[in-house]
Specification:
The complex is a heterodimer. By secondary structure, chain A is α+β, with helices and mostly antiparallel strands. Helix content of chain A is about 20%, strand content about 30%. In chain A, the strands form three sheets. Chain A has a seven-stranded antiparallel β-sheet with strand order 1-14-13-12-2-11-10, with helices on both faces. In chain A, strands 4-5-6-8-7 form a five-stranded antiparallel β-sheet. In chain A, strand 5 and strand 6 form a beta hairpin. In chain A, helix 3 packs antiparallel against helix 8. The longest helix of chain A has 12 residues. Chain A is globular and about 60 Å long. About 0% of the residues of chain A have low confidence. Chain B is α+β, with helices and mostly antiparallel strands. Chain B has a domain of about 90 residues: 2-Layer Sandwich (Alpha-Beta Plaits), CATH 3.30.70. A five-stranded antiparallel β-sheet of chain B has the order 3-4-2-6-5. In chain B, helix 2 crosses helix 4. The chains are: A alpha+beta, B alpha+beta. The interface between A and B is large, with 77 and 55 residues.
Amino acid sequence: MATLRRLREVPRHLLVCEKSNFGHDKSRHRHLVETHYHNYRVSILIPECGILSKELKNLVMETGPYYFVKNLPLHELITHDFINTFVKKGSCCALTYNTNIDEDNTVALLPDGKLILSLDKDTYEETGLQGRPSQYSGRKIMKFSAEESTMMSYFSNYQIQEHQPKIALSTVTELQCPVLQSSALRGAPEAACSAPELLDWLGAVFSHAELNNEPNNFISTYCCPQPSTVLAKAYLCTITGFILPEKICLLLEQLCHYFDEPKLAPWVTLSVQGFADSPVSWRENEHGFRKGGEHLYNFVIFNNQDYWLQMAVGANDDCPP
Amino acid sequence: MMWSALEKMPAPATTYERIVYKNPSEHHYMKVCLEFQDRGVGLNAAQFRQLLISALKDLFGEVDAALPLDILTYEEKTLSAILRICSSGLVKLWSSLTLLGSYKGKKCAFRVIQVSPFLLALSGNSRELVLD
């Protein structure tokens, strides 16, 4: 029986759903965006929109650049020069490239100057430094404060490349879309969909899944949560790369201003996915891969400045703040 | 689309509320790719689904071959798909895919690229970021 039960089990996952209003003094939206450091993908969905405004398009085009430095010794990140040139300015993030958090040694630099090392046992013992065991694996985590020209010239002795985030813009027509009420996070029977249903639907839209299958369809029975409505069109924008939290804050602010003028759209969404191999999710909360490495969040911005915020993590993660 | 004047009036600001859901997802999502040893083997979506069902049946029997399984997206050119399975069936589906070795006598293997209870996580894969 125990074996049968195990066959039906899945790793634990958490979804935090919050609702609030951007006008509330204690709204934490800014803080939660600013403390989610290593962002891989930002997606925007705007219902009933065929073209991005000039301001939003400019912000989207200016989310980069980011830099790739090969074979950089770790000690370069803790030199006085590096700290004064980049870390003290407060907007510097770094993450080791092509290292899997569940297999390899990984290093991350946070904007507040903390250097996080996630190491396997052997490397940890070689360093001789003080750390603590990982909550979720046999690894060791170390955190250091790196007690702030450009990147290209600073690392000119190493192979450094400048990259721009990839941007994909598209419109979809005749899109089935859930009906939401900003005050009803859990949804309302026959009247509005819940926050988890909305998050699921967003995933289907950005994966380009068919949303209108018949219940007896052989291939897929997936359909849009009910109640739903049909949008004549919707604008999708995705930005992929290494994106700073500050840039995401600017995007969020601009999307809040989307409703300064009357719009057909009842709400817009901004979704952010973190790097699966970052050693942290929010702030210094430990993040691990387990089966998916997901740590993502999504804003639903309503036309009355109410918002929903969904934060999702997998098994080897603390509960989002 | 017609909106009434009442619907256009914004509602008053909502109050703060926080809900923490533990294991809320009834489904898990898998991004998979089928690789054949020899090139030139094609399957349409229906054949692909039939292959998944027979993999489940071979390992777990008739009952589990009827587990609710959807192919949300399918690309015939690359034989890659996003699957949706009820969460209680994830381990069975995953192990069936792992142990599938051939299709119509041709050697093949499933590559599981991403798995998540959140479909939104499958729209991007940071492990696919290539910089050099």
